[in-house]
Amino acid sequence: MKKRTIKKVLVANRGVPAVRIMHTCRDRKIPTTAVYSTPDRLAHHVFMADTAVHIGEAPPIESYLNMDKMIDAALRSKSDAIHPGWGFLAENDEFAQKVIDAGLIWIGPSPKVIRLMGDKIEAKLIAQKANVPTIPGLNDVTDINQIKKWMEHEKVTFPIMIKAAAGGGGKGMVKVENEDQLSQAFAQARSEAKKAFGDEKILVEKYIERGRHIEVQIVADEHGNVVHLFERECTLQRRNQKIIEEAPSPTLDEDLRQEICFTAVRLMREIGYTTAGTVEFIFDSSTKKFYLLEVNTRLQVEHGITELITGLDIVGIMLDVVMGKKLPFKQADIHPNRWALEVRLNAEDPKTFSPSFGTITRLEIPHGPGVRIASGVYEGADIPPYYDSLFMLLMTAGADREDAVRTMDRALSRSLRVEGIKTLAPLLLSIIRHHAFISGEFSTRFIEEHINELISMFKEKSSEDEALKVARYVAEISALGPQKWM
Amino acid sequence: MKTNIFAKPGMSPKEIVGAVRGLKGVCFTSVGMRDAGQSDFKNRHRIYDLKTLSHYYNNMGLFSAECHGGARWHVGIMNRRESPFEEINILRELMPDVLLQTLIRETNLWGYRPYPKNVIEYVVSKVDIDVWRCFSFLNDVRNMRAVAEVVMKRGRLFEPTISFTVADWATNDYYLSVVRDIVDLCGGVDEIVLCIKDMAGVGDVNRIGNLIDAIKQAYPELVINYHRHITDGLAVPAFLAAAKAGAKIFDVQEDSLVRFYGHSPILGIHAIFEESGIPVHLNRAEAEAAVQKVRDWIGHYEWAESPFKGLDHTVTLHKMPGGAFPSSFEQAQKAEFLHLMPAILKMMSLYNRIVKYFDVTPGSQITWVTNSGIINRYAKERGDAGVRHIIELMTKFVEEKAQDFNAMEREEQEELLTLFRNAPGDFKNLLLGNYGKLPVGWPAEWVYKSTFGDEWKEKIKERKELSPLDSVPEDDLEKIRRELSDSLGREASEEEFILYLMHPKDALEFIEFKEKYGEAPLVLPTNVWREGLKKPGDRVDFELWGKPYTLELVSIGAEHEGIIHVVMRVNNKTRVYKVETPRAKKVEIRMAKGPNEIGAPINGNIWRIGNPERGALKVGDIVHKGEEIANLEAMKMENVIIAPFDGQIAEVCVKLNDTVQEGQLLFILDKVQIKEQEPIGRID
Question: Hey, which bits of B545-644 come out as E strands?
């Protein structure tokens, strides 16, 4: 396998992932190119990069999902490699192929692997071949009668899950509680699938009640080395989107951990995976069984906590692997010795999850021991309504879980301040202070089950915040003079 | 330092009363922190300034400091944006040895209407006050029962108060009967102080000495507090007469706070008592220092002072009390009927002989609204001549004919019978007994005819003889608490709940203000509180939670399209504030309200109106229950908007690709009956 070098990386993304990748490129002294849509003209990632290229208007289809413009931008900016980040074109095999065909280096697994794993139905068949357990389900559904028949035949009861075959990230995924919801849900999943992934193929699966979401980080080189970097637990989700992740999993004992990690390695070796990827499982606590959910053929949002517990740089590994280098470690060299926690700071109302757009008028970013921040914004930046609501990741690490949680509490309650938009911060703080979270007793339904008590726990004041309220008052009265109500 | 404190928090009522009885001479209650501000400065004195007196109060040897209650509570949340609870906490810390005193309006508490008994008991049990001065504008002692019980059970001092006026019916016998009711209610005279509340300052010198003498003869051990406003100009000799007759406690305020409607000057009263051989329990040096301290800040309140300055002995005729006098004039000025004031005051002096009660809250408000309403109505309908006419008619009726209705001409009778037809609801409530019994009986029948017209007989039948304590139905406190939490979107604190029980609408506004501006009302000096920073470089230093902060004005921009940008340095960090002026353009967003209005479930983008099967929808289209009528995308997730019932689209309120807010109106649907067979793209 021939050695290649990367001279300049175009990051085909925005916000948090773009910034994350550029950090490693800076470490490696590799120049970067940012791309931006019109509303992102002044976005943080644009100024992180060494050069920036405007690629189109706000709708993703005209900008961040536009393959030709992306490749054109790479060529124009003299970039020789493209990193897709996560979301947008990250799991698009056609794009990966186009990148390669344009003579550029694709920083990710091969288009073939992406295609195989991207089709959930294909992926399931391969997994079964590799002796990886999968959830009972029905592939390639085109109408709801098929679903009804399958349920009858396999004695499956509601709830069930309808998924876009090409899906991921909770999009095109609808839980169905009863027969009445079936047709509406099916139509919605199909439409979302088409919009988000350009593919309306659908599958259904039995819904594992109160399951836990556990995933294994894999890195692999082009020389046949496949190494796992242990697991992460991402059980805390709302609307099928993760909001809190941790590593290691508080659920698994040592035997199960070994079993789940090596199952993941077996699958990835079977498909010839390279660079970084994740094998996601759903774990049924009551039966201690785990089933394959899907393989994410890309860098994942929550990769940072694996980096925190292992001390490795996964983006750096991806760069090395695509340059043809061998993994510099073996499985036996990987010794996690930290507990790490991540919360996703989304621009959303913490009570209703309704997205919140606008200008960030105040931003205080947490610092101090044990804290790692990945921010896609700065004070004064705009959150436009067109893209994902994630704008910052907060990670903390400690010697054990209690440590990591304590540090996260400090970061959220005493350090982080965001004004101008609503964020999930109050909810996140309530969750990490909840006794069920602290004791590790929770399922993917934790948030929906506890939302009312979580909301009632909001409220944290600091003199800094209070002083700014006083300042706002003085500013208004200085401008407007004495008020009638006085 | 020699301490001259004889009464302090923690002492039992009996100990406090014993200590006052044991004093060689008299002592003072300072009203500098409450009634002084209420009477002459519209209650605008801020705790930020008042607390500068607390150090002196703590060493002065006062009986108590009235710092709470009356209208201070309500004005606090509405205008000063201060919570009465915050004020108590601040004063407790700064003057721990002073008895804190409130003024409470029996069943009306710190509001203007009778509260249910369970609300009264709940609220009174939660407010940390040592001396509870409780008055009734009807001298209906029954109404004091709930407050008395809770206060006495808590081991706090109850100070029942008789409202005092001068009238032919307000005899010593009348007042002694009120005192008797009070002594009965409180189980004797050893655990109470009796207050005589001369709220307008109308007691002439002999009258007051005579009354106190009569009470002392009946109850030699009763400790009496005389509260007297100064408007008539006779307060000082009246105090002297009261002291000689045996009153023990006198309400005073800093000399530098004295204007025209409040109370006597502490140093002046101290001097005349001492000169007259009546020892005063007071550390005069501390009192002088407090008088001096007031000058540091009183200049900031000129704007709040009544523009109608000067003493006025005619107060003894219209009897409008200290606090109400300037605010009535202010209201008259604002509503442009200042020129009618002489007629209104004359009308009041006649009215108070027809409907007999005491002009103090809420009675004074009823009097004011009723009488200013009558005069304004005549002025509007018949001009100056009309005003003159009604005054002449009323004077004839009250003064010449001694209120003998039958002695009036038929035409005059008819006019009297419409006099109160437009009276305010509270006047009607008063006549119906909803506040309690009137002091010397219900008004004459013609007043009922005049107020209620043909229904007068039924209304008299409805009239309550019971105290509101026994007639107002209890409130469901937990329901009210939930209602508050729902409006706040979070759990309400105990203090917020009590503010809400008192004045629901104003409490909500206050809480909203505090959430937005935090402790601004407590930490900012008064000039900055009122006017902000004026020119570049102006700064204000303050402490917040024990840490230093500095705000420095950099610049105030010019107004552009209703927006002014203010640049300030906040602890050295430059910040830009966008301030909306009243001219700011408000983009009005229609929100879905009625059941036939369909709103957006979350913020997002309307990317489809209609559904894939039938395409776009327009006005007039028929839609079916459960049918998708639009789709909203937010952060790449789709949200289906469905028709809640079968209907016809009356209005499409958004355009394709509009960004909408949660709750924003999307469609208006009319309900229609649809024939069964209509084959419209239905998703089921």
Answer: 547-556, 563-570, 573-580, 597-599, 604-609, 622-623, 628-634, 637-642
Considering the domain A9-107 in this protein, what is its CATH number?
3.40.50.20
Tokens of residue A323, six digits:
């340059």
By the CB < 8 Å criterion, does B566 face chain A? yes
pLDDT digits (tens, 9 = 90+) for B357-394: 998 888 988 999 999 999 999 999 999 999 999 999 99
Cβ within 8 Å, pair B551-A184: no
Burial class (CB in 10 A: 0-12, 13-18, 19+), B571: middle
Contact A475 B532 (CB under 8 A): yes
Q: Domains of chain B: which residue ranges?
A: 13-304, 335-471, 532-586, 597-671
C-beta separation of A239 from A353 below 8 A: yes
Beta strands across the sheet bearing B604-609: B637-642, B628-634, B604-609, B659-660
Domain A136-206 has CATH 3.60.20.10: no
**CB distance from B545 to chain A under 8 Å?**
yes
d(CA A73, CA B573): 39
Determine, for residues B544 and A355 on separate chains, whether the beta-carbon distance falls below 8 Å: no
CA A311 to chain centre: 20
A188 and chain B in contact, CB less than 8 A:
yes
Q: Please report residues of A whose CB lies closer than 8 A to that of B542.
A: 470
Cross-chain residue pair B532–A479, CB shorter than 8 Å: yes
- Note the pLDDT tens digit of each residue in B246-295: 999 999 999 999 999 999 999 999 999 999 999 999 999 999 999 999 99
Token readout for B305 is 């002072």
Q: How far apart (Å, rounded) are the C-alpha atoms in residues A150 and A141?
A: 10
Which residue(s) pair with A226 in the sheet?
Answer: A220
Between the alpha carbon of residue A271 and those of residues A114, A165, A275, A295, the distances in Å are 10, 18, 13, 11
Peptide bond into A159 cis (omega under 30): yes
Residue from A238, A298, A338, A344 carrying the catalytic annotation? A298
Pick the CATH number of B597-671 from 2.40.30.170, 3.20.20.100, 2.40.50.100, 1.20.1050.10: 2.40.50.100
Residues 6 or more apart whose CB falls under 8 angstroms from that of A54 comprise A35, A36, A37, A38, A41
Picking from B372, B231, B201, the residue whose alpha carbon sits closest to that of residue B309 is B231
The answer to whether residue A14 is catalytic is no
In the numeric block, which tokens belong to residue B211?
Answer: 């009354």
Find the CB nearest B570 among A183, A389, A467.
A467
pTM value is 0.81
What fold, for A212-461?
Answer: D-amino Acid Aminotransferase; Chain A, domain 1 (3.30.470)
Nearest CB among A60, A465, A472 relative to B577 is that of: A472
The predicted-structure confidence for A108-140, as pLDDT tens digits, reads as follows 999 999 999 988 788 888 999 999 999 888 888
Helix (H) or strand (E) holding B157: strand B157-163
Cβ pair B660, B654 in contact under 8 A: yes
Tokens 């008539």: give the residue: B232
Domain spans in chain A, listed from the N-terminal domain onward: 9-107, 136-206, 212-461
DSSP string, B403-437: T-GGGS-HHHHHHHTTTTTT--HHHHHHHTTSS--
Among B672, B33, B163, smallest CA distance to B435 is for B163
Higher pLDDT, B322 or A391: A391
Set of chain A residues whose Cβ sits within 8 Å of the Cβ of B575: 468, 471
CA atoms within 13 A on the CB side of B283: 19
Q: What pLDDT shows up at residue B675?
A: 47
Q: Which helix (H) or strand (E) holds B69?
A: strand B64-69
* Separation between Cα atoms, residue B142 and residue B178, nearest integer Å: 10
